Description:
The protein is α/β, with parallel strands linked by helices. It is built from 10 helices and 9 strands. Strand 6, helix 8 (203-210) and strand 7 form a beta-alpha-beta unit. Helix 8 (203-210) packs parallel to helix 9 (229-241). The longest helix has 18 residues, at 61-78. 44% of the residues are buried. Mean pLDDT is 82; it is low at 1-7 and 15-52.
Amino acid sequence: AKMLVSRCRPPNVYFPFSLGTFVEHLTVLKPKTFRLHEINTKTFTTSITRRNSSYFETLSDRQKDQIHLYVDTLLQWNQKMNLTAVEEVNEVMERHVEDSLAIIPPIQNSYISHCNTKCDDISVVDVGSGAGLPGLVLAIACPGWKVTLVESMNKRCVFLENAVSLTGLSNVQVVRERAENLGQNLCFREQFDVAVARAVAEMRILSEYCLPLVRVGGLFVAAKGHDPHEEVSNAERAIKLMGASVLELCSVESQSPYGQRTAIICLKDHSTPVKYPRNPGTPAKEPI
């Protein structure tokens, strides 16, 4: 097994720690969900069940400490490189951390409902992780998940390595690579239970980045704004070409100033055709 992993490990994959024993998992919270055909732009924003409590408050003391340490590190590094436009701790917590935590219940509920298995120890890939959002936050909140952070910029990967080390996470690997190349790498192609992405690109482009990495029967979850209905409709062809279909749109109550957010859930029905993803840069220049 070790030899196989060694053969599959490219030189730009960072393994700060080996995967270890994971602690007890979080209780599943049930968000309000909507099927795609039930949503329209007139009624969507008024159909929300608001949460008064923060998901952050469900975390253990250790997990809260890890989150705070991550946020402090993020703001320190942000002084010498562009990781986020937000400069205050409270704003980072509301705008980024809570927003990332908000997609956990939709992932859990959809995976259990449609993948016919538990989601205690799933493999998750965060495409275009940037400063570690949402992937690093998910890894802290769900220590049983094996999380891969994919980021093409070396300096951001250096930050991610440092943040993983400081927070003591043993369930994370950082991969410096473009999503288009990773999707054609047989060590990563269709190897993940769930792919997530936040603030990376529109759905037509994002589908080509993420779905080739998802196994058949797995999920692709995109964190979007309060009303992504038109964007989803425009991406239906691209999603289908990648071997998936839109399963549901889950409304989540973010604690950020932007309020209502949506998790777009796609189910991988078939293998992605070998020609996808296309060459680096092509998906963004020529969206399907």
